[in-house]
């Protein structure tokens, strides 16, 4: 009964607060309302499906995107075990899921199981010396973990106790550094304020047993993701900027973390700009704010980040991290909702789109949270809004782009002539089909690249019904074009009547 009353009270508070919050930020659209409700009470969005992933989401040329696992409500942080299984934390379910590695090559996890449940809003995880470390909202614990069998043994042993989890940013992120110390990030209780608990809005460091706690960086409003650059060991952390200063202020940040540095919040934001709501920093004589090394767009909400092992990736990914932008809830036009790549170069850090398509003219279908790279170099992205895990691969693999575009080798000829052909002007339809073929640049995939002969002798393998089926529901990664029924038929006539080669000859 007590939990029920608390839940009802929270819902009442939520629905009273939402309009005030949105009006204060100048935002009243339904998309922002959905984002706020999702952020506060964990209500999920529409479920992911393979058609949306294939037709709507985009990755850079040479990469292939797949829906690895669906139906994982509020999936947040990711961690690969030494054996190659994938752990997924779900704070609103209070559990850690284990997705068994894909040994049969079907593009899906072979198994799925709840590894441990009954946790208090778990988020960050790491593994060291046979222990699985879990950051709950109020503590950090560890439990014996057998990577070979994918099982835990014994009971949770708290190593860091009595963490506060009140206020806005209750989640805790942990990583174990190369120095074999436990790093803990915890966000602020508020949008803009002085904290009562000096550990909030900081990055801390401990021995693996939780002893010798030290605050190594302050002024970090909400640094959910952090990782070490493999080329020099420098530590970088994302940070969510404050709200309620309009659509374009302040930027979210990427900070290079150094021991003893102050990163500005709540007195400064962005490139050390004084916050208008806080006045002078009372400790200004003892500290100077450290500016970010990169600014994200305002309210993009960068969460998980990971530096990539570039051995299986293009040369341009040699010094690169991926960051998940969870997206805005309080902008007049939604922004973020994607994964970006950050490229370190002589002139600084360049941000590029990596996984996009979750925001379609203000309609949001997903919110990336974390990024992890598997032992085989494949990249995985969690989405807590759609409850999904996506997989991004590069180069020639068992399901590479050329193979996915390949025409089926099975014989699917028509058993009888389609009725619509009886009165068709085949010459006119073929010309219409040719125009469509050129308009949608079909030759860029079907006549070029690694497999330029995909359409040769097509009429010996497929009939009109089969070709139209492919046009109506194309296999990944072929896009779904907005073809009418008559256009599908015209394109089918063109494809099946022409002597296709790897050139335009004979067209």
Under CATH, the topology of the largest domain is which? Neuraminidase
Helix vs. strand class: alpha+beta
User: What is the approximate shape?
Assistant: elongated
CATH superfamily placement of the largest domain: TolB, C-terminal domain
Helix coverage percent: 10-25%
Q: What can be said about this structure in brief?
A:
The chain is an alpha+beta fold.
3D structure, described in words:
With 507 residues, this protein is an alpha+beta fold. Strands 10-11-12-13-17 form a 5-stranded mixed β-sheet, with no helix packed on it. The chain is built from 8 helices and 29 strands. The protein has 3 domains: 2-38; 44-399, TolB, C-terminal domain (Neuraminidase, 6 Propeller); 402-497, Cytochrome Bc1 Complex, Chain D, domain 2 (Orthogonal Bundle), CATH 1.10.760.
What does the secondary structure layout of this molecule look like, with pairings?
Blueprint: H1 2-24, H2 30-41, H3 50-56, E1 63-69, E2 78-80, E3 86-90, E4 95-99, E5 112-116, E6 125-128, E7 131-135, E8 140-146, E9 151-160, E10 172-176, E11 182-186, E12 202-206, E13 214-218, E14 226-228, E15 235-239, E16 252-257, E17 261-262, E18 268-269, E19 273-274, E20 294-296, E21 302-307, E22 320-325, E23 338-345, E24 348-355, E25 359-360, E26 363-364, E27 368-373, E28 379-383, E29 388-394, H4 401-405, H5 426-439, H6 443-446, H7 464-472, H8 485-497
Helix pairs in contact: 1-2, 5-8, 7-8
């Amino acid at each position: 009964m007590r939990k029920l009353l608390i839940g009802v009270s929270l819902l009442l508070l939520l629905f009273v607060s939402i309009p005030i919050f949105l009006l204060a930020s100048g935002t009243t659209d339904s998309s922002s309302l959905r984002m706020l409700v999702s952020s506060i009470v964990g209500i999920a969005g529409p479920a992911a499906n393979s058609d949306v992933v294939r037709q709507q989401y985009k990755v850079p040329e040479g990469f292939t995107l797949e829906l690895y696992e669906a139906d994982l409500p509020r999936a947040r942080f990711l961690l690969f075990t030494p054996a190659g299984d994938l752990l997924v934390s779900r704070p609103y379910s209070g559990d850690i899921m284990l997705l068994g590695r894909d040994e049969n090559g079907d593009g899906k996890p072979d198994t799925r199981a709840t590894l441990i449940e009954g946790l208090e809003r778990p988020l960050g995880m790491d593994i060291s010396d046979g222990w699985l470390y879990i950051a709950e909202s109020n503590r950090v614990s560890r439990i014996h973990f057998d990577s070979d069998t994918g099982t835990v043994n014994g009971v949770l042993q708290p190593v860091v106790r009595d963490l506060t989890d009140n206020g806005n940013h209750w989640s805790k992120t942990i990583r174990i550094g190369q120095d074999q110390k436990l790093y803990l990030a915890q966000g602020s209780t508020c949008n803009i304020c002085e904290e009562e608990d000096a550990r909030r809005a900081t990055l801390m460091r401990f021995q693996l047993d939780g002893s010798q706690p030290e605050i190594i960086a302050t002024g970090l409003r909400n640094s959910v993701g952090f990782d070490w650059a493999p080329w020099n060991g420098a530590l970088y952390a994302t940070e969510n900027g404050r709200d309620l200063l309009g659509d374009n202020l302040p930027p979210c940040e990427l900070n290079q973390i150094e021991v003893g540095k102050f990163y500005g919040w709540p007195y400064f934001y962005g490139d050390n700009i004084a916050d208008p709501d806080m006045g002078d920093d009372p400790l200004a004589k003892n500290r100077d704010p450290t500016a970010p090394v990169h600014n994200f767009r305002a309210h993009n909400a960068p969460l998980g980040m990971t530096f990539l092992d570039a051995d299986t990736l293009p040369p341009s990914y040699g010094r690169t991290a991926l960051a998940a932008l969870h997206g805005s809830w309080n902008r007049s036009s939604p922004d973020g909702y994607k994964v970006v790549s950050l490229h370190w170069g002589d002139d600084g850090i360049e941000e590029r789109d990596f996984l996009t398509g979750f925001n379609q003219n203000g309609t949001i279908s997903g919110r990336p949270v974390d990024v992890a790279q598997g032992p085989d170099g494949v990249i995985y992205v969690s989405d807590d809004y759609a409850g999904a895990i996506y997989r991004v691969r590069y180069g020639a693999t068992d399901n590479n782009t050329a193979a996915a575009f390949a025409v089926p080798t099975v014989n699917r000829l028509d058993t009888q002539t389609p009725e619509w052909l009886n009165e068709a002007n085949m010459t006119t339809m073929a010309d219409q089909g040719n125009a469509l073929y050129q308009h949608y640049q079909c030759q860029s995939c079907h006549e070029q690249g690694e497999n330029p002969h995909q359409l040769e002798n097509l009429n010996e393998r497929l009939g009109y019904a089969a070709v139209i089926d492919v046009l109506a529901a194309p296999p990944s990664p072929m896009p779904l074009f907005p073809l009418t029924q008559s256009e599908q038929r015209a394109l089918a006539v063109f494809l099946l009547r022409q002597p296709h080669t790897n050139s335009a000859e004979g067209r």
